[in-house]
Design brief:
about 15% strand, 20 helices, four-stranded mixed beta sheet, alpha/beta, about 450 residues, binds beta-D-glucopyranose
């Protein structure tokens, strides 16, 4: 076990100061703070903050909790409702401000860097070295969990966002084949509509709309264009005709959804699909976990294919846990948890329930269903065909992500907003982001 003193010494002093300063600045504004945590207690109980609150997500979390219990660790659950972690992110911030950070948190993508920069996160280098993480995980996963050459997160699973789910019974009754390109998708949607069915189950919740939109961007321009837009935030890329085209298609797709498209949680969208009331869904494969949990079996009741036009690509969201150091009293348990979640056995079992796929290169595709196998194989092709999801925090910081989502959402709900208005809004926003970034250098 690493002693608290060792960890303190190992953490660069500058980060300690940054962290203290950050807390100080934030606290001047908001806090009635417990400045120091109560007497340090060495304990094997870990509070875990996450946003897995649907039936299948809970099942996946319970599986992790049970494996931890086998190793003598108690999982104290702090599940915060809200798809894509919208609520959990806010709760985490306020808890950190109140000096009440959970020991373990689902922090993903660019947010890992944001929290690590403030010096809050436990370094997991020893666990990583002892368990050969650098050769076991896909390179993209390696990059995601590191910050300034230190491992600061433990990976759980990879979700594929560019997945089209289709109802097998409806498709076979109408003699439809899964669409592979835009034209085929348009034909399938028209046939479904003519048969009196809703072609696409969708919510107007901002993050769910933006999830569909980033699929359209990937189909238009592939991973490189997706990165130009959402990672590099290149204003010229926004003015590109592919952007306008994707917006037009988004509006066209609105005609394939419930009218009006109501704002509902993703679990309700899944229900509409599994009640055979809508024939397709385009979203992340966490919905597969939910379908399976409800008795809707892969390749019997439904199947998956890639979002038309994105067959070779993998639009990913990677789930990860980071550990808050707090008073350093739970390091042994935190390290145990980090080691455990990345083991081949837990990876295989957890991901089968969650709908995601293993982060390990040595995973066994024979143990996966057809959707998972397609996802895992696509991800294994490497960075050139992978695209980091905007909505799921893989591409940019929280503030930029939320602002971009709001612009897309506004276009989606208000028919008077044109693609050109939307492009102009986003360009103005990217210019401001750029200026802010320069000022912060
Ligand atoms: C997470 C998934 C989660 C989904 C829906 C994504 O950001 O990666 O684990 O199931 O949001 O909330």
């Amino acid at each position: 076990m690493i002693s608290p003193a060792h960890h303190l010494a190992a953490s660069p002093l500058a980060w300690r100061f940054a962290r203290a300063a950050a807390l100080g600045v934030l606290c001047v504004a908001f806090c009635t703070v417990k400045v120091h945590a109560a007497t340090p207690q060495s304990d094997s109980t870990l509070q875990v903050l996450h946003w897995w609150t649907s039936a299948s997500e809970r099942k996946a979390a319970s599986l992790l909790a049970a494996r931890m219990a086998d190793e003598g660790i108690t999982w104290r659950d702090a599940g915060i409702p809200g798809g894509a972690g919208i609520g959990a992110g806010k709760v985490l911030k306020s808890r950190v401000l109140a000096n009440d950070a959970p020991e373990v948190t689902q922090i993903i993508g660019v947010s890992i860097r944001e929290w690590a920069d403030l010096g809050f996160l436990l370094e997991l280098d020893k666990v990583a070295a002892a368990n050969k993480w650098n050769t076991s995980f896909f390179p993209t996963i390696q990059n995601l969990i590191q910050h300034r050459k230190h491992v600061v997160a433990a990976p759980l699973g990879i979700h594929r966002i560019n997945t089209l789910f289709y109802n097998k019974k409806i498709f076979s009754t109408l003699k439809l084949s899964p669409p592979e390109n835009w034209d085929e998708l348009v034909t399938v949607a028209a046939r479904l509509k003519a048969a009196g069915l809703i072609p696409l189950a969708q919510s107007s919740e901002p993050w769910q709309v933006a999830t569909l939109f980033e699929n359209l961007i990937l189909a238009e321009g592939g991973p490189e264009y997706h990165r130009e837009l959402f990672v590099k935030q290149n204003a010229q890329a926004v003015m590109d005709k592919r952007f306008a085209h994707a917006l037009e298609r988004l509006r066209q797709m609105k005609g394939w959804m419930n009218n009006p498209v109501d704002e509902r949680p993703w679990t309700e969208v899944v229900k509409q699909f599994s009640k055979n009331e809508a024939a397709m869904m385009i979203t992340g494969d966490w919905v597969k976990g939910e379908l399976n949990d409800g008795g809707f079996v892969t390749d019997e009741a439904f199947s998956c294919t890639a979002m038309p036009g994105t067959g070779k690509y993998h639009l990913y969201s990677v789930d990860t846990f980071s550990m808050f150091t707090n008073d350093y009293s739970r390091i042994a348990a935190q390290e145990k948890l980090a080691r455990l979640v990345a083991t081949p056995a837990v990876q295989a079992d957890y991901n089968a329930v969650k709908g995601s796929v293993s982060v390990r290169r040595d995973a066994d595709p024979a143990r996966m269903d057809s959707c998972a196998r397609a996802s895992w194989n696509a991800f294994a092709q490497g960075a050139a065909t992978q695209a980091p999801s905007l909505v799921h925090r893989m591409a940019t910081d929280e503030t930029s992500k939320d602002a971009i989502i709001a612009v897309i959402h506004r276009y989606f709900i208000d028919a008077t907003v044109s693609p050109a208005d939307t492009q102009a809004r986003l360009v103005a926003m990217y210019k401001t982001f750029g200026n802010n970034k320069k000022q912060n250098l």
